[in-house]
């Protein structure tokens, strides 16, 4: 497994402003927006939303502690797309991201981008509760709440949103400065925005619980998770971050509980992937209170077979993280024997093998995996193992195909850059690093790297033409992004 975890902190006020890598998916049914006024089309088109979303995602990648773990990214996007496929009024592709943050929160912004805090795994008792948070955020997007807020502010305070959006970017780079800028920008309209936010929160609950039920999850999970948030607020000196960015008066909870009670009761079992994702998030990306505790592992050990397997997987993870690879291998062995095609187990086995300098074992196991051609997680694992084994040329073959299919995954470009460097292909290394720079919003640096790559190859060669064409594309992207960089 190839892990890449940035260490800088993201400003939590992104979530306060916004209301609230998977392939694009669109629902095949559409409903009309509730009669809450403008559809925001006069202020922001769908195309503009997607362009702004692209810009902000790049800033997020460059500034936030995103968890770029291929397994976890795959899980939350698979879960998210299951919900999106049962949502109505879907106008944009959706992408789901995970941030390493101890505060319980989630937020959505332009272009169908939904961000989850890793603490959600700690506080979600089951998959339906996690899905309820995601359904709520998806509904903020489908109902175009942020665009509507812009429409409202355009009428009442036309400069407020311009300054506020600029402050988001400043907050990503420097949280303290961003907080000061945002506070000053919103001072005059704060009360009206809070009121508007509550109205939209209620609508996101109302639409979200329908999405939750249509997707096959327990609708009671939504009020149950709200109850957990309120309980934490009662016994804590500081309320959960989610209650600050998603106001939760008693009326919201009562409404959600009433709606859930009117829906057909459902008994829903959490998937094995949910338990494994929870174990992995808490076991590998823990900080503060969000840790894979012995109490949780013991509780899982007494549960159903999915929980028991997650407990064993969690113990193996902890041993691997403690550099005790022999113990980790022993703990993982029975799981892998019972389910040799499980990507979670194959990924961990690869890490353990590489930790024991057994890259050949990892390569043989991965090449025998049934889903290698269709599962990007296994492809990245194999490329990483090949690199560790000194087989960079074969790794490049896999990674060229991978980066073509998954252009927005920084993991693939980083591995490709390493592989090309080992082969001494300086121009191709620079080009791969340029793509990474572009994905994190550093377009000037990306263009500079591509210019260096172009200078490395033969004049008027096909390679030079390709690098120069990519430079032109990135310059055009800079022009499209220029209005947002001036905010």
UniProtKB/TrEMBL annotation:
Ligand binding (Zn(2+)): 136, 140, 201
Record EC number: 3.4.-.-
Protein keywords: Hydrolase, Metal-binding, Metalloprotease, Periplasm, Protease, Signal, TPR repeat, Zinc
Span of the signal peptide: 1-27
Entries under Pfam families matching the protein: Peptidase_M48 (PF01435), TPR_19 (PF14559)
Compartment(s) where it occurs, according to its Swiss-Prot or TrEMBL record: Periplasm
Gene3D superfamilies from the UniProt entry: Metalloproteases ('zincins'), catalytic domain, Tetratricopeptide repeat domain
InterPro entries assigned: Mito/Outer_Membr_Metalloprot, Peptidase_M48, Protease_BepA, TPR-like_helical_dom_sf
Family label: Belongs to the peptidase M48 family. BepA subfamily.
UniProt protein name: Beta-barrel assembly-enhancing protease
The species this protein was found in: Pseudocitrobacter corydidari
């Amino acid at each position: 497994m190839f892990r890449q975890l940035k260490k800088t902190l993201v400003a939590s006020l992104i979530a306060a402003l916004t209301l609230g890598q998977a392939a694009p998916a669109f629902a095949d049914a559409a409903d009309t927006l509730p009669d809450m006024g403008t559809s925001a089309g006069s202020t922001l088109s769908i195309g503009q939303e997607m362009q702004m979303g692209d810009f902000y995602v790049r800033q997020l990648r460059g500034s936030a502690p995103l968890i770029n773990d291929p397994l976890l990214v795959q899980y939350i996007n698979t879960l998210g797309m299951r919900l999106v496929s049962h949502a109505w009024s879907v106008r944009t592709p959706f992408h789901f991201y995970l941030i390493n943050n101890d505060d319980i929160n989630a937020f959505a912004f332009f272009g169908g981008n939904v961000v989850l805090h890793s603490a959600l795994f700690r506080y979600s008792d089951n998959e339906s509760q996690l899905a309820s948070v995601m359904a709520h955020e998806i509904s903020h997007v489908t109902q175009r709440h942020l665009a509507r807020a812009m429409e409202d502010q355009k009428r009442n305070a036309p400069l407020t949103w311009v300054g506020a959006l600029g402050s988001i970017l400043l907050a990503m780079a420097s949280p303290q400065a961003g907080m000061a800028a945002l506070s000053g920008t919103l001072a005059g309209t704060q009360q009206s925005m809070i009121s508007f936010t509550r109205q939209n929160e209620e609508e996101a609950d109302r639409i979200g619980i329908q999405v939750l039920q249509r997707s096959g999850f327990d609708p009671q999970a939504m009020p149950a998770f709200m109850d957990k948030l309120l309980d934490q607020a009662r016994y804590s000196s500081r309320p959960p971050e989610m209650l600050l960015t998603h106001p939760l008066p008693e009326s919201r909870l009562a409404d959600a509980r009433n709606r859930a009670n009117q829906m057909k009761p459902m008994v829903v079992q959490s998937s094995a992937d949910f338990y494994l994702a929870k174990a992995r998030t808490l076991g590998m990306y823990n900080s503060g209170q969000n840790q894979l505790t012995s109490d949780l592992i013991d509780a899982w050990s007494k549960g159903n077979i999915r929980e028991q397997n997650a407990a064993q997987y969690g113990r193996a993870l902890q041993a691997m993280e403690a550099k005790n690879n022999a113990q980790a291998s022993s703990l993982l062995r029975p799981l892998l024997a019972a389910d040799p095609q499980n990507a979670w187990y194959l990924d961990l086995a690869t890490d353990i093998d590489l930790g024991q300098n057994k890259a050949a074992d990892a390569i043989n196991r991965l090449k025998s995996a049934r889903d290698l051609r269709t599962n990007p997680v296994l492809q990245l694992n194999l490329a990483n193992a090949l690199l560790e084994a000194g087989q960079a040329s074969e790794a490049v073959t896999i990674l060229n195909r991978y980066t073509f299919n998954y252009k927005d995954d920084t993991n693939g470009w980083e591995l490709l850059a390493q592989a090309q460097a080992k082969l001494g292909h300086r121009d191709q290394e620079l080009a791969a690093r340029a793509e990474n720079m572009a994905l994190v919003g550093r377009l000037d640096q990306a263009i500079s790297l591509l210019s260096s790559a172009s200078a490395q190859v033969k004049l008027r060669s096909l390679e030079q033409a390709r690098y120069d064409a990519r430079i032109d594309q990135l310059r055009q992207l800079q022009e499209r992004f220029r209005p947002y960089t001036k905010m």
